[in-house]
Design goal:
heterodimer, A: alpha/beta, Rossmann fold, two-stranded antiparallel sheet, B: 247 residues, alpha+beta, Ubiquitin-like (UB roll), five-stranded mixed sheet, two-stranded antiparallel ribbon
Chain lengths: 181, 247
């Protein structure tokens, strides 16, 4: 049996904009160094649909619908370490601005009363995940081991976090890498 | 006096003048004690508690505790930083502090203090309370959801501008900022661009219109250097970098 030396990493974007994933990819040629050290499990990059046992899970985005909750819980069950990545995972971010209004008000504004709407009705296809009343930061749903704030966290912040985690060190973000915006 | 009056802060000897607070003595010696509701020209409020220091074994706020000879003050300890981080987190969840959606970002003192104390998450459950934004004034708008109740604007407007435009109303978690006008709107006050209260807000609650992006994100006060190096946000006004502090 071959011993597995590479760490297994999974990532997911919940109620986010994929900006954090783009920023992760923005480590550019360092991706080649990273791929020497990690294998990717479920992530939008591999298109694997369900997560297996992993060492590290990165979650972008807050929780806004029922599917987000299932994915997040699946990640928590399978990841030794779960990291909240970005402003939306941190406090709900821009999607959480809808928390000021009721879900009904939001849906009606978008699909019934909005400008230029033809055939107004609120989408009800069973394949569409049901929206939660409010958008939640992910630490309100599962235990989170580490937070990497930023909108998005810079590629250098990702790199510092990943390399220090891989080296088994405590993560020490430089001031320039710690940002909420 | 036979001997100069001194206290120690984290072991460093700091001189003070009779009547000075621990905060004033520290600032004069270039020692940073985190704070949000303190500003040197105004009467201390002591409401944010971020300047909590340990004086001879007891925790107290540095902004309204008088310096007295021989005091041993602890400021930059892990225990105090942890307390400050807890306070900062509570401020974050109580209001609407979604930095990517706020034009104050980078110049915000709450954000800068949070960076300074190493806050990586808000930890607690968010309130997401909603108060209507007041955009009635031609030059300013007020986002009540971002107010941290530091009363800097209340004090500046009352004691410096002599206009008494702002006040706090309600009690406990229902405490909120109010405007002192018959309609409750800022447009019906004599609040104006040159007021001290107009550029004293440490967060994104009182914002000048049309100037919010004159300094791009990434080049703002706290984007590159921490608050213990560059100081309070009140010293700069929106767009100060390009236009000078012209008010």
């Amino acid at each position: 049996m071959a011993t597995r030396t590479k760490l297994r990493v999974a990532t997911a974007s919940l109620a986010g904009c994929f900006g954090c994933h783009m920023s992760l990819l923005d480590i550019d040629e360092r991706l080649l160094d990273l791929i020497e050290k990690v294998d990717f499990d479920r992530t939008p990059l591999t298109d694997i649909k369900h997560i297996g046992p992993c060492d590290l899970g990165l979650i972008e985005g807050g929780v806004c619908n029922a599917e987000n909750v299932h994915v997040l819980k699946e990640f928590r069950e399978n990841c030794k370490m779960l990291v909240a990545v970005g402003a939306c995972a941190f406090n709900g971010g821009v999607p959480a601005l809808r928390n000021h209004y009721s879900l009904k008000e939001c849906l009606e504004e978008s699909y019934v009363h909005g400008i230029g709407i033809v055939n107004p009705h609120i989408p009800n296809d069973p394949e569409i995940p049901l929206l939660l009343n409010k958008v939640h930061p992910i630490h309100e749903v599962v235990k989170i081991d580490y937070f990497l704030p930023g909108c998005p966290p810079s590629s250098d912040a990702f790199w510092v976090m990943l390399t220090e985690l891989l080296a088994g060190q405590e993560i020490n973000l430089p001031y320039s890498a710690l940002h909420y915006d | 006096m036979s001997q100069p009056s001194t206290i120690t802060i984290d072991g460093q000897t700091v001189p003070f003048q009779e009547g000075q607070t621990i905060m004033e003595a520290a600032l004069a010696a270039n020692i940073y004690i985190p704070h949000l509701c303190y500003q040197r020209d105004l009467t201390p409020d002591g409401s944010c508690r971020l300047c909590t220091v340990t004086v001879n074994g007891r925790n107290t706020s540095a902004c309204n505790t008088k310096a007295m000879a021989g005091q041993q003050v602890l400021n930059n300890t892990q225990e105090l930083q942890d307390i400050r981080q807890t306070l900062t987190r509570m401020l974050f969840v109580e209001g609407d502090h979604i930095c990517p959606g706020c034009t104050k970002t980078g110049n915000c003192q709450l954000q800068a203090v949070a960076y300074y104390v190493g806050m990586l998450s808000s930890h607690y459950h968010h309130f997401y309370s909603y108060r209507k934004i007041d955009a009635s004034h031609p030059d300013y708008f007020i986002d009540f959801n971002r107010c941290i109740l530091c009363e800097l604007c209340v004090r500046a407007s009352r004691d410096v501008d002599h206009k008494n435009v702002f006040g706090l109303s309600g009690r406990g978690r229902k405490t909120h900022l109010v405007i002192n006008s018959p309609s409750g709107e800022l447009a019906d006050t004599d609040f104006a661009v040159g007021d001290k209260a107009a550029f004293i807000c440490p967060v994104g609650a009182i914002l000048r219109k049309r100037t919010r992006y004159t300094t791009p994100i990434g080049e703002r006060l706290y984007d590159l250097q921490p608050i213990n190096v560059v100081g309070d946000a009140q010293q700069i006004h929106a767009g100060a970098k390009r236009h000078g502090n012209q008010n």
